[in-house]
């Protein structure tokens, strides 16, 4: 089989070779015993599998950490299986960095798995193989994963699993692999080993229902926020003093990626048209920051600033410094039809006025004029009008307080994991 894989890789059709290997493994590996489902009322031993280097401040890693924390808060024993970032020479150094990055002790075990390259590529799949080997050696009641590659093998571990779907396009670079992974997720969702498929929005839940995941296996659950990190009572003046922001005009803060599909160009043009506002765009990689600084300077914009990427624990201070919190994406973001941006819930928790595009999944959570000011996506005139409206209503606390109340009642990580645990309990998998 490896000869087939090698030859087909040499002629360029690596995706076909990959599927042939998976077919071979499926036919020739011994099936796992039927999964044993822990009874309701028992503490679960949960293994969370992820393939992104750890620790980092990437949004997907932050989300995984918060989910592991929340499951542990509910009284369950959680182990995160994840590859160690190459910047850290040992596991202990990486764990120490994680505590600093995420603000204290993490109430779950971190078990680093090797990042293996298969035939010089497919590092993610190699990492999944290492994680699944560790799972087989661990004594687990449930495996949780948002990595679609794991679904190829999870049914054979003998442990019930939950797959969390974050997108409709599984593989952006290969339509063949996208179709293959999607059909595998759907096929395996019908097996007893799949306890649940969690989609991160109602829209995405509908998409996976149309793909063929059984209705009784589906659950929609938006992302959430760690409410305790955000303190609306903290004064803007104090936050700005700590950050070295000196200004007497309104401050708009955007916290997130600086990719081109996030509408950074639109924010720069908005700053150009609204010199009475200071813009701070917190986040991004060094090359992205350099690019957007050059672009701003090219058109003479001086009221926009790029403080850089920062640990997640520092985000609340930046949000507290704002008069207005700005969300931005474009329609060409690959996941925009079904996404559940953590930024939305953190903004709501911060207790500041929110401005953002009215994408369908944003509207699942926020109502225009009630919790924030929404505008037509990809509309520059809509963005400008919304910002102008926002700075004229800064003294009105109605919308920020309504947003904070809604997120506190419905969108914490603890509430999210409780919703998932309730759904598992309905399927006979234990909940304390």
Number of helices: 16
**Uncertain runs with pLDDT below 50, 5 residues or more?**
1-13, 24-31
Beta fraction of the residues?
A: 5-15%
The span between the termini is 46 Å
Mean pLDDT: 89
Give the SSE order as H and E letters.
HHEHEHEHEEHEHEHEHEHEHEHEHEHHH
Work out the number of β strands. 13
Overall morphology? globular
| Radius of gyration using CA atoms only | 23 Å
The description of the largest β-sheet is: 7 strands, parallel
What class do helices, strands and sheet pairing give? alpha/beta
The strand line-up of the biggest sheet is 3-2-1-4-5-6-7
Helical content class: 40-55%
Quaternary organization:
single chain
List the helices and strands and how they pair.
Blueprint: H1 2-10, H2 14-28, E1 45-49, H3 59-73, E2 77-82, H4 91-101, E3 109-112, H5 123-137, E4 142-145, E5 161-165, H6 175-189, E6 194-199, H7 202-211, E7 218-220, H8 236-243, E8 251-255, H9 264-273, E9 278-282, H10 286-298, E10 304-308, H11 315-320, E11 324-326, H12 342-350, E12 353-357, H13 360-365, E13 373-375, H14 380-392, H15 398-410, H16 413-426
Parallel strand pairs: 1-2, 1-4, 2-3, 4-5, 5-6, 6-7, 8-9, 8-11, 9-10, 11-12, 12-13
Helix pairs in contact: 1-2, 3-16, 12-15
């Amino acid at each position: 089989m490896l000869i087939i894989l090698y030859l087909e890789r040499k002629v360029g059709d690596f995706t076909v070779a990959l599927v042939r290997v998976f077919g071979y493994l499926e036919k020739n590996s011994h099936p796992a015993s039927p999964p044993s489902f822990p009874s309701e009322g028992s503490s679960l031993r949960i293994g969370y599998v992820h393939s992104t280097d750890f620790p980092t401040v990437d949004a997907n890693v932050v989300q995984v950490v918060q989910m592991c924390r929340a499951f542990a808060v509910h009284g369950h024993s959680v182990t995160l299986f994840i590859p160690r970032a190459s910047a850290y020479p040992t596991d202990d150094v990486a764990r120490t960095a994680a505590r600093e990055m995420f603000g204290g002790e993490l109430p779950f075990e971190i078990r680093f798995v090797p990042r293996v390259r298969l035939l010089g590529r497919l590092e993610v799949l190699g990492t999944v193989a290492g994680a699944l080997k560790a799972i087989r050696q661990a004594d687990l009641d449930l495996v949780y994963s948002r990595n679609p590659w794991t679904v190829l093998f999870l049914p054979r571990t003998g442990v019930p699993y939950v797959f969390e779907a974050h997108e409709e396009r599984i593989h952006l670079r290969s339509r063949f692999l996208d179709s293959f992974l999607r059909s595998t997720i759907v096929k395996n969702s019908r097996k007893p080993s799949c306890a649940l498929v969690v989609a991160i929005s109602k829209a995405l839940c509908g998409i996976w229902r149309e793909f063929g995941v059984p209705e009784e296996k589906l659950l929609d659950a938006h992302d959430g926020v760690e409410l305790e990190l955000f303190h609306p009572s903290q004064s803007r003046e104090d936050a700005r003093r700590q950050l070295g922001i000196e200004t007497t005009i309104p401050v708009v803060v955007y916290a997130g990626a600086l990719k081109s599909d996030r509408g950074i160009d639109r924010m720069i043009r908005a700053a150009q048209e609204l010199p009475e506002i200071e813009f701070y765009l917190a986040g991004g990689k060094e090359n992205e920051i350099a690019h957007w600084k050059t672009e701003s300077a090219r058109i003479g914009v001086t009221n926009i600033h790029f403080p850089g990427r920062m640990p997640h624990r520092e985000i609340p201070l930046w949000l507290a410094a704002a008069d207005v919190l700005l969300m931005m994406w474009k329609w060409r973001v690959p996941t925009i039809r079904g996404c559940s941006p953590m930024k939305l819930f953190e903004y709501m928790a911060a207790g500041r006025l929110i401005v953002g595009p009215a994408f369908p999944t944003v509207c699942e959570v926020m109502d225009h004029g009630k919790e924030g000011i929404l505008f037509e996506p990809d509309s520059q005139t809509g963005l400008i009008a919304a910002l102008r409206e926002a700075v004229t209503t800064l003294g009105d606390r109605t919308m920020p307080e309504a947003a904070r109340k809604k997120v506190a009642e419905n969108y914490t990580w603890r509430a999210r994991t409780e919703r998932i645990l309730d759904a598992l309990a309905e399927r006979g998998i234990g909940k304390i």
